[in-house]
């Protein structure tokens, strides 16, 4: 089964989450800034943060370039200052491409300046791994 974990990260939080779940899934996390090839994928994990109340424009633009036929299922994982903010814009782009996106999303606290300092922490990372384990069964 082909699995891909992609991320966009400004402060390193999404990278940390992406690398942890990629380890769990036995693949390498890929930074979208390296323009990874996404082909023939059963499960695509999309990891990012929230900036100015929205998903990252770079991630939105990258997702728009995907071929919907090449991806069977997508999962969204988001860290944010708001802790529970979902990746609504990313979901909309993937859905428009015809890619099913799991209703359940992973969200966690991501520090912004002093607020939420230390997050995503060990427990957040463990929760992300648990999320992946539960949806990949
Ligand atoms: C420039 C900037 C803007 C942000 N704006 C928001 C925001 O509007 N709402 C929010 O909940 N978090 C906001 N955050 C917090 C990030 O979503 C959070 O730190 C996230 O974990 C960042 O992930 P990253 O390190 O992978 O980029 C912002 C962070 C930065 C750096």
Give a written overview of the molecule.
The chain is of the alpha/beta class. The protein has a single domain (3-135), classed as Rossmann fold (3-Layer(aba) Sandwich), CATH 3.40.50.360. It is 32% helix and 26% strand. The chain has four helices and six strands. Strands 1, 2, 3, 4, 5 and 6 form a six-stranded mixed β-sheet that branches. Helix 1 packs across helix 4 (122-135) and helix 2 (57-64) packs parallel to helix 3. The radius of gyration is 14 Å and the shape is globular. The protein binds flavin mononucleotide. Flavin mononucleotide binds next to helix 1, strand 3 and strand 5.
Task: Describe this protein with a few key phrases.
26% strand, 137 residues, 4 helices, 6 strands, globular, Rossmann fold, 6-stranded mixed sheet, binds flavin mononucleotide, alpha/beta
Mean pLDDT level: 96
Regions with pLDDT < 50 over 5+ consecutive residues?
none
Anisotropy-based shape: globular
CATH homology group: Flavodoxin domain
Based on CA atoms alone, the radius of gyration comes out at: 14 Å
Instruction: Give the class from helix and strand content and strand pairing.
Output: alpha/beta
Report the portion of residues in β strands: 25-35%
CATH structural architecture? 3-Layer(aba) Sandwich
Reported by name, the CATH topology is Rossmann fold
The bound ligands are:
flavin mononucleotide
Helix content: 25-40%
Q: State the separation between the terminal residues, measured CA to CA.
A: 12 Å
Would you state the CATH class? Answer: Alpha Beta
Instruction: Work out the number of β strands.
Output: 6
Count of helices? Answer: 4
Q: Please, how many domains? A: 1
């Amino acid at each position: 089964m082909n699995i891909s974990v992609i991320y966009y990260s400004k402060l390193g939080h999404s990278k940390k989450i992406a690398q942890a779940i990629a380890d769990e899934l036995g693949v390498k996390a890929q930074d979208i800034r390296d323009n990874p090839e996404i082909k023939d994928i059963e499960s695509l994990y999309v990891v990012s943060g929230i900036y100015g109340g929205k998903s990252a424009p770079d991630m939105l633009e990258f997702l728009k370039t995907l071929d919907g036929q090449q991806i069977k299922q997508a999962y969204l994982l988001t860290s944010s200052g708001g802790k529970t903010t979902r990746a609504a814009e990313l979901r909309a782009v993937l859905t428009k491409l015809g890619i099913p996106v799991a209703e359940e999303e992973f969200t966690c606290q991501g520090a912004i300046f002093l607020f939420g300092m230390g997050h995503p922490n060990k427990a957040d990372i463990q929760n992300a791994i648990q999320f992946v384990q539960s949806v990949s069964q």
